[in-house]
Design brief:
The chain is built from 8 helices and 8 strands. It has helices at about 1-15, 20-45, 60-65, 65-75, 100-115, 140-150, 175-180, 225-260; strands at about 50-55, 80, 85-90, 120-125, 155-165, 185-200, 205-220, 265-270.
Length: about 280
């Protein structure tokens, strides 16, 4: 009797394992597991994406093709009249609606102007608003500025900024409300370059140039991603501006020295009553 019970129990357990209802449950669980795996894989692949944002002002495009430029360069040697009347302006933006605020740009121009004011060979400095700059205006635009503001030289500023936004595996946590607000799965890289070139308008010659660069690496949640990107953009601009000012000081020093020693690639002309500083004050 005992052996019979064991056989009957074995038969029952086999019957339970092979029960049709249990088979369906097992198959359903397998399918659900596969679905979740596919969703996880898809989310991981979609989550690991890179978004790119780029906007700039191009000095080359602003200067553009100018029929008179080549002729003037061939026949005219820069004649620098000291003390100088200078202007400072940004080349026009190429991206409508994507630009640094005028307040930030004017702030940088004022700081550059203060560097020029430290040197006695500069008589006046004009800060030229963006409204006076034409798309691809070239030297014809600069000639108009020369007449309007009475300047001989102009420092043209341009910038180039790129932002990369990477979403990694942490983006899976965005499926929860807490993850979207608190998990910083978005990685931001902001590269900024600001360039400054001093041009002698009558001769179309570039006298010198300086530049400033900056790189910011940051992270953000998807909720404040746009806000963080805008903040990084402004910080990158300001820090690149500081680097530019540092390099500009050195360039101005050597330009001043070239003016005093008259060994630059230009002719020096002094206004009546103006005397150059002694060379010993420069070195």
């Amino acid at each position: 009797m005992k052996l019979e019970k064991i056989k009957i129990g074995s038969a029952i357990s086999k019957k339970e394992v092979l029960h049709p209802v249990d088979k369906e449950v097992f198959i359903m669980r397998c399918r659900l597991a596969m679905v979740f795996c596919l969703i996880f894989l898809f989310a991981f692949m979609v989550g690991c994406t890179t978004k790119y944002k780029h906007y700039n002002t191009s000095m080359i495009r602003f200067l553009g093709p100018d029929e008179n430029t080549i002729k003037i360069q061939e026949t005219t040697e820069p004649q620098i009249t000291v003390p100088l009347k200078a202007g400072i302006a940004f080349a026009p933006s190429l991206d409508y609606g994507e630009d640094f605020p005028e307040k930030e740009r004017m702030s940088l121009m004022r700081k550059i102007a203060s560097r020029f004011e430290e040197y006695k060979f500069v008589e006046t400095i004009e800060l030229i608003p963006s409204l006076y700059m034409e798309q691809s205006g070239g030297f014809s635009n600069l000639d108009k500025l020369k007449q309007l503001f009475g300047i001989d030289i102009i420092m043209l500023l341009s910038y180039d900024q790129s932002q990369f936004k990477d979403t990694g595996a942490l983006s899976l946590t965005y499926w929860t409300l807490i993850g979207a607000y608190f998990v910083k799965g978005e990685k931001n890289d902001t590269y900024t370059l600001i360039d400054a070139a001093l041009f002698h308008i009558p001769s179309r010659k570039m006298l010198f140039r300086a530049s400033g660069i900056n790189h910011i690496r940051n992270s953000a949640t998807p909720i404040n991603l746009s806000e963080q990107a805008r903040e990084d953009s402004l910080i990158g601009f300001r820090q690149a501006s500081m680097d530019l000012l540092k390099n500009l000081n050195e360039k101005l020093y050597y330009f001043r020295k070239a003016i005093r020693s008259s060994n630059g690639e230009f002719q020096l002309k002094l206004k009546p009553g103006y005397k150059l500083e002694p060379l010993k004050n420069i070195e």
